[in-house]
Here is the input.
Amino acid sequence: MIIVLQRNATQEQMDYIIERVKKLGLTPHVSRGVERTIIGVIGPEDILRVTPLEAFPGVEKVLPVLAPYRLVSREFKAESSIIELGKGVRIGDREIIVMAGPCAIENLEILREIALTIKEKGVRVLRGGAFKPRTSPYSFQGLGKKGLEYLKQVGDELGMVTVTEVMDPRDVELVAGYTDVLQIGARNMQNFNLLREVGATQKPILLKRGMSSTIKEWLMSAEYILSEGNFNVILCERGIRTFEDFTRNTLDVSAVPAVKQLSHLPVIVDPSHAAGKWNLISPLSKAAVAAGCDGLIIEVHTHPEEALSDGAQSLIPERFTKLMEELRVLVKAIDRDI
Amino acid sequence: MIIVLQRNATQEQMDYIIERVKKLGLTPHVSRGVERTIIGVIGPEDILRVTPLEAFPGVEKVLPVLAPYRLVSREFKAESSIIELGKGVRIGDREIIVMAGPCAIENLEILREIALTIKEKGVRVLRGGAFKPRTSPYSFQGLGKKGLEYLKQVGDELGMVTVTEVMDPRDVELVAGYTDVLQIGARNMQNFNLLREVGATQKPILLKRGMSSTIKEWLMSAEYILSEGNFNVILCERGIRTFEDFTRNTLDVSAVPAVKQLSHLPVIVDPSHAAGKWNLISPLSKAAVAAGCDGLIIEVHTHPEEALSDGAQSLIPERFTKLMEELRVLVKAIDRDI
Amino acid sequence: MIIVLQRNATQEQMDYIIERVKKLGLTPHVSRGVERTIIGVIGPEDILRVTPLEAFPGVEKVLPVLAPYRLVSREFKAESSIIELGKGVRIGDREIIVMAGPCAIENLEILREIALTIKEKGVRVLRGGAFKPRTSPYSFQGLGKKGLEYLKQVGDELGMVTVTEVMDPRDVELVAGYTDVLQIGARNMQNFNLLREVGATQKPILLKRGMSSTIKEWLMSAEYILSEGNFNVILCERGIRTFEDFTRNTLDVSAVPAVKQLSHLPVIVDPSHAAGKWNLISPLSKAAVAAGCDGLIIEVHTHPEEALSDGAQSLIPERFTKLMEELRVLVKAIDRDI
Amino acid sequence: MIIVLQRNATQEQMDYIIERVKKLGLTPHVSRGVERTIIGVIGPEDILRVTPLEAFPGVEKVLPVLAPYRLVSREFKAESSIIELGKGVRIGDREIIVMAGPCAIENLEILREIALTIKEKGVRVLRGGAFKPRTSPYSFQGLGKKGLEYLKQVGDELGMVTVTEVMDPRDVELVAGYTDVLQIGARNMQNFNLLREVGATQKPILLKRGMSSTIKEWLMSAEYILSEGNFNVILCERGIRTFEDFTRNTLDVSAVPAVKQLSHLPVIVDPSHAAGKWNLISPLSKAAVAAGCDGLIIEVHTHPEEALSDGAQSLIPERFTKLMEELRVLVKAIDRDI
Here is the structure.
């Protein structure tokens, strides 16, 4: 932590800050310049973060030196984490894991039809929403428990790993009873009580990035889960909010290599929500894979016109098949499998 | 709703869309131009919103005509809502309501000291956090139930209305038992289950705008609460996330007159979180009042250096006193009270 | 400047950096911590800014300590600058200067009509565009030299200070021959050759903030003008680009007190371009004044329906009159004049 | 164009609007709904764009139906444009064109050294800045004419196409005399006079996207150049400004397929400026290629530590060589050449 003093800070103010730093058990290093004096504080920054140094008289600004996260960092664990999703599927290794399925589960028949279609193309992870966070209270909110039952039934029938969103700390136990992977949606990335709740399970957690969260905040939210003892976290970039309105969100493809540098956790990409348009899913999926992601989560629907949620961003089976074929060629070029 | 067809849309595609629109009980109006054909659909847009028109073959884009919210709108209720906060305090009327207090409740003595200080300046609403949403799992998370007890005790002693945040749907009943006004924080603006839960109470709800939420989304979140039967919603602008990093967030002062045009609900401003710096609170408070807000929520601390949360953005009593004096002069110039 | 070394930086890398810093005539201070070593460099940061320290092996990041601007800063000049606009009008003092007029000059008659209208309300500065930067090559681009002539004629007739935009370094001499104040538009805030050109005149320069420029970059652009010897710069906040689309841009009202803290230059606000809607101009003008700005620049048109540019954000005379009346009351409350 | 009337618009207001629309030679189609009346206007939208419909009494909002650009659109020209850069290099075809070189030209020797290095790896286009737009007036501003001479000399010696930025309309003729491709930098994307000036040449123009420009505005800026008769425009995505600060800008990789859908012009990507960090260039280059771009422009420097501009984002030759090898494998997987 570096404390930059105001130009006109008094000796008394400086002495007071130094004294306070020492009381915390830390060592201050003072460097006096012509225009500013700075105090470098060596030691664990966590102690300092809870002290509002910027409120001290004479302080101009405080510059942190260390990242605020710990357990999720590459410094804590140098080798990349590989996470078992169940049914023999592992993410974070050479294989790029494709998760696919409808945005919302509408009924058993359509879900099964979609699952069969994607399984045929090699997909081993089925996604589908039972609890849907919707901007409008008047929109379809998902089938709830009934949707979970359908998802489990189809997953069991076809031997596929299942992923679904949990929105409420009260539902964690319920949802965990039906599904292999728990998804935390973008709007809940900083729902800290929900993070703690899923951190108390040992289920793999798919943590979507908040639509206006920095990479640092995203990693801090993962830290919540790890700090509860659950290290099975998969990060998911799904587009951030910017001024550009051609796409629904702006896919931050740089977040993929950034996360791989900063953290040992696997990172996947959701091109469907990022783009909001089915005709951008294929190029964005390929871009994400080329950038080094560990997986993709893609909306596929056999009848997008009838979809009760986000039909406009769903791939029809023909297009999904074509995408999978192109990805198979692409992954070889970057020395990975799919 | 206006459906713009692709330039090369076929007659068959158009017929199909028209048929589907009619089946929904709506009336399509076709206008053929040289470059595009458009279909105007007259009728309740809610029916159409659940139909993914953009996924239909031949459709280029869909333009909504009506706002998606209803109960919160000025069209639904033309006169401005006045909300009773209890203890004789009403918001939305001529009087500008100042809410003040510490970011987090640290202990009974400091809370009482702060409350006494602000009460002396005419403040009748005391804010203080018992449950604190913190980016880091290692930061002070608030005193929880103990904090609620202190808040109630001081509120009762001094006859002040109390406001505190509720973060978890499981805590709504608990928090509602201790406080007059329930606050939904920016990070929970789209925690829809929490919105429904507070909508089921009749408590006044202070709904903070999400840091990257549009005004429309913010009003939709209020709509969730109203749609559960609770019309006592106060909107709170607290800064949005932009590229500018001199301030912690960018106070969107335009949101004040925008909300007053679009909605009958009262709107207040939180200059402390918007700025992140105590020395911007005074000018931003005055700007908010001049723009027409119905209240302010301001962090005040008697010992900001010792504050366990956000000390750097808290006003000390002297500065708060000066601000209140300036506001007293200002409100007269805009024909309001304080 | 503070150089944070990578965790695994070698002694050799550190020695090399220290040696380079010393060669530049600066003094490095090394602080070794458990997790990181940091090198504080005391001395003029300009020398270091041209050295790409982040490219050095072993460097994790570089944290600047000083602001990159100099002449525009309060540290360089503590008292606020007052700038003479001509015809007895001074900006930066107690009086809030209102500049008004049409977005684009359409013809002599309309310009004169508008000028007479606003002069009657006490406005002494007439704005009007002769060269218009337009997103589309097919939009009206302004009358050019003819527009300048009209502006000068009306300014001379009515004894009003005139302001108009210059877009091209080749036009600076021409425009300076006709007008009292030269405006640099938002899109040209980082047109550095244009900044140098206007810096070489002694005309007052109205420097609009770029729509996605930080306050720091804006001050750096002003620094370009001052560094050429022209200290007559007026900064103009006109809204920044964010995700919010209810307003055309988001008025960053915090920029007003921020600039007043950081710089001695006067700062004004353009509510018309910020909002893009005439019905927000009044509340935003009042907010800007309450926040401490030194002036306003407002679009007024007697026939907004016929305006060739931005009619939708122009005030009609009745509304402008009402705004001026309200401002007259407001400025007294903040101890200023208008 | 669709005109949405206010809920309480009068018949008189509607008649007036219809009359005005008819006078412009256009055909209004009125659709009356329960909640709103809308007027669809069929015909060339350009005529309507210059009429400020939103300023008309009774109008709530105006929704454009057609894109505002014309010559750059796929509707105007369905097949992708292939642009001759000279010396046998063509962009927009199967081959992905890599442009590389230093950010700024420092002297002849270093430029030649870098050019030789990249040529050896198959690069046929040499970039280098002679005029540098710099945020600070105190930073190195480029060698100017001397830099142009060095660039031409090295380009001629090695038979490489040369690209350099032109910042000032007065310099277009000079720069065009020395270089094969003229670059318009991000800060000048809406320097409309400069766009017209380069539009008057027949040189290939590399048009960088403004850091906060929408895709639509970027295409409008290209339209300026095409509307002057120069169809040789290459679009360059270089990152947009967002709240994320891990990268200098956020590479909007979706812009690549978006531009390919909307326009016939080739699009390339600049990963160096987008990331601001050399260690992200490789993954971003691969992502861009996988997303379908027609080329890359990459900063390479043999001595990044000594670079006078942006050393931190330059690749050293070893890393550039590795990137080129990886790209050679990758392009085959997407059926292109390099």
